[in-house]
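Researcher: Let's walk through a ligand-bound prediction step by step. First, I give you the protein sequence. Second, the SMILES string for copper (II) ion. Third, you return the three-dimensional complex as structure tokens. Ready?
Model: Ready.
Researcher: Here are steps one and two:
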Amino acid sequence: MKQFFTSIFILTTLLIAPSCSSDNKSSEVKISPSMNMNHEKDSMSEHDGHSMEHMNEEDHSKTTTQAKLNTPQKLAPNQPINLVIEIQDSAGKPVTKFDKFQEKLMHLIVVSDDLRFFEHIHPEYQENGSFKVSTKFPESGGYTLFSDYKPVGEKDRVSLMNISIPGSVPLPKSLEKFQKSQTISNTKVNLDFSEKNIKAGKYITLKFDLKDSNNQPVKDLQPYLGEKGHLVIIKSSSDLTTADYIHAHALKNTTDGVIEFKTKFPQKGTYKMWMQFNRNGKINTADFWVNVE
Ligand SMILES: [Cu+2]
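Model: Step three, the predicted complex:
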């Protein structure tokens, strides 16, 4: 259903719907680009947790790499578009050797600027530092692509690319809301935090509780890309940077039907989370907005 969400280029008017039936007092928070004005990348240079390993690559890479996006000239919404992503060093030379991590050579997260659309795909390595993938962008508007890859022998890193799909950008069809549970196919996903509120810069455990339609804990979870679940978190910002991107790793040995992540939100703001899990070979994505104080 994510394909039907609209994308708007500027987030100033995106509101969280107050129609949420939960008691969440924060359900009328406005997502505004001004929330992102105080980026302090330097203050985020700690690297003290596995779940943070995708952050702050600029600060920690031995060498700098960049991703260049090549697309066909003619772009249109809802049409397959071939993307070619070239990984280069700072001198513009192709980076040609990569290690797999989480079973792939590259993970590509595509989001629309308003964070309604999310896609997690895996471009194929071609040669000479270039990866290829075909995908569709559901609506006209701006999208950000986070490519996550690991030059051989180094830490994995994230490079950001942008693409704009021409055409008239439709008005938002509906407002998104804060909610702590949602049902995906037959799975009820409930979100809980280890703390009452999420505080910027403090570790927190996010617990996703998965129940079947009969309200019993889900028992048929299978690994997805080698882990119990994957969580991508992106801070709502008018101009996304790699510092807005968190890819958290599921904790091991949690009980049946429970997927947990320990992570840290670097800054105050409004974040969207997408938690992906595998039931009997089918990948499901549950998404949640959260406020970080
Ligand atoms: Cu991936």
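Researcher: And what stands out?
Model: The chain is about 0% helix and 40% strand. Residues 1-61 have pLDDT under 50 and may be disordered.
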